[in-house]
Amino acid sequence: MPGGWVGSNRSAELPLNWSTEIRPAVLERDDYQCRWFTDGVRCTEPATDVDHVDDPHGHRPENLQSLCRWHHNRKSSAQGNAARRHWSTKRPSEPHPGLIG
């Protein structure tokens, strides 16, 4: 199954100045260091990606963090899996028409 931005429209939702102003400013603010913490220990890998902390449409600096590729992929995957679980339990499946009494 393909991952990443394949089939996604997320890049179209980013502000026009994302790659020229916002993204570089966040990476610089965070000293190009991943901000992921596990058990109080910060990741030591260099940051390559800028991630939305909460609101995926909020592009304010306080809603953005620098992450290494591995942690960004891990977080995005977990969010995608959670969304799929939410939608898969949203509505019960309908019985097969041939099995209706």
From TrEMBL:
CDD domains: HNHc. Residues 72-101 are annotated as: Disordered. InterPro entries: HNH_nuc. This is HNH endonuclease. The lineage of its organism: Bacteria, Bacillati, Actinomycetota, Actinomycetes, Pseudonocardiales.
